[in-house]
Structures are given as C-alpha cells and as structure tokens.
Amino acid sequence: MFKKILVANRGEIALRVIRAAHELGVQAVAVYSEADRLAPHVLAADEAYLIGPPPSAQSYLRGDVLIDVAKRCGAEAIHPGYGFLSERAPFIQAVRDAGLVFIGPSPEAVTAMGDKTAARTRVIAAGVPVVPGTKDALKDAAEARKVAGEVGYPVLLKAAAGGGGKGMRVVRGEDEIERAFEAAGNEAQAAFGDNSVYIEKFLDGPRHIEIQLLADRHGNTLHLGERECSIQRRHQKLVEEAPSAVLTPEERAAMGATAVAAAKAVSYEGAGTVEFLYHEGQFFFLEMNTRIQVEHPVTELVTGIDLVQWQIRVAAGEALPWTQEDVRFTGHAIECRITSEDPFNSFLPSTGRITGLTVPTGPGVRWDGGIATGVEVGLFYDPMLAKLIVHAPTRIEAVERMKRALLELRVEGVDTAVPFHLRVMDEPDFRAGRLDIKYLEKHEAELLAPSDDEELIRAAALAAALLEQERRHTKSVPRVQAGTAAAGASRWRDRGGWRRG
Ligand code: MV4
Known about the structure:
Blueprint: E1 4-7, H1 11-23, E2 27-33, H2 40-44, E3 47-52, H3 63-73, E4 77-79, H4 89-97, E5 101-102, H5 107-114, H6 116-125, H7 141-151, E6 155-159, E7 169-171, H8 177-192, E8 197-201, E9 207-215, E10 221-233, E11 236-242, H9 249-264, E12 270-279, E13 282-289, H10 296-303, H11 307-315, E14 332-339, E15 341-342, E16 348-349, E17 352-353, E18 356-358, E19 365-369, E20 376-377, E21 384-392, H12 395-408, E22 410-412, H13 418-426, H14 428-431, H15 439-442, H16 444-448, H17 452-473, H18 486-489
Parallel strand pairs: 1-2, 1-4, 2-3, 4-5
Antiparallel strand pairs: 6-7, 6-8, 9-10, 9-12, 10-11, 11-14, 12-13, 14-21, 15-16, 17-20, 18-22, 19-21
Helix pairs in contact: 4-5, 7-8, 12-13
This protein binds ligand MV4.
C-alpha cells in the first residue's frame, strides 16, 4: 500500500478521498487554490499546498504543477476525483512518466471511451447492445440523409467527441436532416474542436440507468449493480438511487454482464461506470465514464463496498477479494445533490458566505460535504456543495428518511436546491418510481414554481437582512443588555435572518 497520496481535487470529493486514505492508513496531501485557503479539504489533509489563483485553469487543471507537488512531497500516487483532470489521457500519461501511480484507468482506456464512435465500435465488437445507428462519423449531409432513412426517423445526431449532450440534435423528418447535420457539426466543432457527428435512432423518454464497475489488474471485473439517474436537468443529475425501481434480478444480471464486457474490451482498471438507456424493456450502451462518479455513495450503501478505498487498493496492486456472487444488495439508497442554486429561478447559481450549517444525522443518513460555516461560495467552481444520502430497508422508507433529513438540514447564506428535493420526495410519480429522463420537464409546474410559502420566506429573508443592516449602523443603541436571557438565547441574536415557524 502507498504511504502517501496526493488528492488532485477540491470540495466534497477531495474530502471523500482523504477519508478513504486515512482509513487505509495512507497520508493524504491536499492542493488548493487561493479561493480555497480555508476549505474543509485543506484542513482535513495531512499536508496542503497552494497551487495557484482561483480559476481552475490556473490551479486544479495545472497537471504539471500537481505532478511537481506530488514528487516534491513524496506522494507515490495521485487520485484525481471527478471532473478536472480525471479523464484527461495526457495527464494520466504524464503522471506515469513522472514515476507516479494514477489512481484510475490507463490512458488507453480513457482515450478509447472518450471518443464516442470509437467506444461504440469497441463495445459492439464485444457483443454489447447499442442504439441502432452508425458506427463511424458521417462523411457529409448526403450520407446523413441516407443513413437516417435506413435507421428511421426520429434520429439523433451526436458529436463523436461529445458526451454530456453537447452537439446533439433530434431530427424528426427528412426535410430537417441536412440543416441539422450542419448545425450539429458546427456545435461539435465549437465545443470540442472536432465536427465529427454520427447517427442513432432517437429514443423518446428512456430511463438513464448506469452500472458501477470495479476492476483489478489481475483479471477480476465485477459489477456492483445499477443506479437510476433519470432525474436530471440539462444533463446535470439531481437525484440518484439504487437499485432502480424497475429492474428485475435477471435484467440486473444481464446489464451487469454487459457492462463487464464493455470494460474488458478496453482492459479497464479501477472504478468505472457504464451508462445505458433503458427503454421499453431493452437496454442500450450509451457511454462509459472512466472515473469515480458523484453518485457513487448510493452503490456503497447498498453493497457495503467502499469504492474509493478499493480504487486506492487496486491501484496499489491488490486483488479484489470477491466473486460476482459475493456481491449482495441490501435495502435502498437515495442521493440528493445539495447545490448552491435557486430552483425557483432557473437554478441560477447562488453565491455568498455560509453563515450557518446544520447537517442531518441519525439512522441511515450520510453527508458527503465540502462546506463549513465561514466558507465563501463563489462562481469559480461547480455549485455542488454536498450530497445528502440515505439508506433504508425499502424504497418508500428511504424516501421518507430523505424527507426527514432534508428538513433537518439548514444551509444559511446561500440558496440551495433543498426545497426542490423536498417537493420531489412528495411528488406521486417519484414516489411510485415512475421516472424517465423527461421527468423534470413533465413536472416543472409542481417542482419549479415558487409557492406562496417560498415568496413569504424570501420576503422575510429580505426584511431580516434590512433589519440586520439597520442594526449594524445603529451604534448608539445598546443591542443586548447584559444579564438578560438575550445574552445567550434571544431570537434577535440569531444570525440566520429567518427561521421556519
Ligand atoms: C440519447 C437519447 C435518446 N436517444 N440517445 C444525452 C447525453 C448523452 N450522453 C446521451 N444523451 C442521450 N442520448 C438516443 N439514441 C437521449 C439522451 C438524453 C439523456 C440521456 C441520459 C440522461 C439524460 C438525458 C437527457 C436528455 C437526452
């Protein structure tokens, strides 16, 4: 096992990796930008190094600086977390060239899965079902027209270099195909510097279900079941759960075996995820994510397997100690992403200082957070502050537990998605497990419209802020009289601005 690893990330995932390292007796080195001097991941690490100004391009994306820090502090390996440098093959190669271990897959596996047409070709050869369409990029609009006619409308044009929905165009009939081909190509060029586009049959309203994998370098590749990730907005997931409310044990086994085949096709090592679209009882390979994902905790809770610890252990050369039959699933887990966004104002990012934080606890509740009171939430990084995850024997008990935990949670100083999550937990289709990728669009009216209650809360918060300002500027009036209860407990000393009655 390593003695020391460098965590090349920030926020909740940096803390998550530091915790896993510490439980393995491994020292963890943090890096931080000038915006993150007081961040929790810095305080949790054994050592921490300043790597640059706040913008990611000058700090967390500086592969050369990160490798230099790792070498100078004596770290043997680098854990990339998710985002940032986690899926950049040249960085992985540079880590290896520096004599360090990258905690994750090979650069070849990342490259193979990063190009969507190359990935399709690789997994088709391994017998993995994909959505009907082209293997390779289309040469021109004429070819697009021909192939679309064969596949049958509606079709979807996708960027070969894509992922995450950029450069995607639904085409409903032959009259639109040529214009859509040009538009998708231009968008792909702008986003990825590559205008290659391919075609798939468009599936209308499938579920997004993904399989978690764990592979060692001794030939063992296991699947750890699925996650249902259909509740998303503009390709940002908001709620995830395990297991899916719809998969039968047979479907789980078939999807799992398919995901294992896809991973083996690129000699995958470490933790990874194969995404599928699930539509009318069939599933189709979408893409493979060659990193640990945000939503990994729901899988950890239903399998009892610590994915981040095992990432580190397999990177150190250990073999997985289980066969597929040893992997058992217990109960139901749900995760809500706690983002600093205003759900009632188009999820507009909300900034400010965290002035108060009450984290839910109690049976079956897990908080993976990257914030603390006093921390400034700005616009330099992703708005996800934390994840609230619950585990319970059944799905409906997990839903009720999540509601309870969301009501215990108080984040003061910024708006969060918490009121949105509370509405989801009460929404009948969600409670019945009736989900697909159009869920949010379908339920926009109930889930995203500000209620009278929210209007009232906003008005109260504004009034409280004005009062607070006035109080600060009224120096002549003694605010608290010594010796009264107010010295410790008066509501007028509450810094939160408002409270629910
Ligand atoms: C699709 C699809 C429907 N049919 N492919 C979106 C992101 C990219 N990775 C693949 N995506 C989709 N591919 C076919 N043939 C619908 C989507 C899609 C989607 C997929 C997963 C999760 C959320 C989504 C939201 C919109 C569209």
